[in-house]
Amino acid sequence: MRFVLVAVGTAAVLAEITVCAAPAPPTAQAASPAPASSSAQASQAKPLRRSFRAGDESRYRMRLTVRSELEGPETLKIGSVTYVKTVQRSAEARLAWTVSERVVTVAPDGTAHIREELGAFFQATHSQQPDADDADAAKLTASLVRTLSDWANSRALEFRVAANGSTSELAPDGAPKFDESPPPLLTLWLVHALRPQATLPEHPVRAGDSWQEPRRVHVAGWMGVRAGETGEWLEAPAADRAALRLHVVQEISGRVLDTPAGAAPRSREKDEDDPDAPPPASNKTERFFAESLSTIALDDGRVLAASRSARKEIIQVLPPVEGMPQPPRFRATLSVQVEIEPCVESQCEASGNR
């Protein structure tokens, strides 16, 4: 699976991430058989697939919450003495809107051409009031609200969904553009997470089954990359429609190459113990974590509801500074929460940010 995100209006590639299955085979754990409906029993022997019909429409209520957290040392001078203290700042904002999806056409291989209309946006709001005496926290809050507000415009997106639920041809404006350092892992994930779709696993559908699949990932500028994905089928609450819940967890972490200004960039293939390599300017690591819980209909594989979250954390430790007991350490975390619920016209219009 390969993702390429290109800046709007330019040909500049912002990030390129190549993901492939590791040589190690996936492991699966099967639960003891449990009573199931006839629809569930019919779906247990093989992987679940989407079934589309041209003209079908679905409506959803969407809620997005974004949170930014910063932590690092800050100097405070009292009289002739300068102190260093750790300061933490956070901001949170939210946005709600409705989505209407229509199946335009269905190709012979089962791939559907989807038209998604976004509208009925509620005003973006902050979830917490920053301290009156903290100007930086207020700026952080205002930045998040402005980012959501700038994106909150009615629009139509067109993309394709394969029989396994994977989406393609998604435009970058399918998600808000946050001030995220490259590679924009969170933004790339969010473009897909905001669609009421789910990639269906290549595993039989049995409640209680779980699997773990290592991934071999290359992220430009990273070393020591570790990645993996786990998933499981869970029972869904009793409803009129037979369904199961698909729980998927993804994680990517690595150390970011960071050399002093003016030094030649260090090659990713170069051994870290090479004495001729320039010393790193700092110890910087990044970690991306995503979790999704989607309720999937067993008759056609569509998403009935979903709760999804992701966060990107950057930790940077600078060289020791004279007078400080510990090297300066900075941490920045950007996280998002997505809630997808089905709705009818009156329900969609009556619900907003909450």
Task: Characterise this structure.
This protein has 354 residues and is mainly beta. It has one domain (15-20, 46-265, 277-350). It has helices at 38-42, 135-151, 185-193, 345-350, and strands at residues 2-6, 13-21, 27-29, 57-78, 81-106, 112-119, 125-126, 155-161, 167-168, 210-219, 222-235, 243-256, 283-297, 303-317, 329-342. It has a 15-stranded antiparallel sheet that branches. A hairpin with a 2-residue loop joins strand 10 (210-219) and strand 11 (222-235). Residues 1-16, 23-28, 30-43, 261-265 and 267-273 have low confidence and may be disordered.
Summarize the SSE layout with pairings.
Elements: E1 2-6, E2 13-21, E3 27-29, H1 38-42, E4 57-78, E5 81-106, E6 112-119, E7 125-126, H2 135-151, E8 155-161, E9 167-168, H3 185-193, E10 210-219, E11 222-235, E12 243-256, E13 283-297, E14 303-317, E15 329-342, H4 345-350
Antiparallel strand pairs: 1-2, 2-10, 3-10, 4-5, 4-15, 5-6, 5-7, 6-8, 8-9, 10-11, 11-12, 12-13, 13-14, 14-15
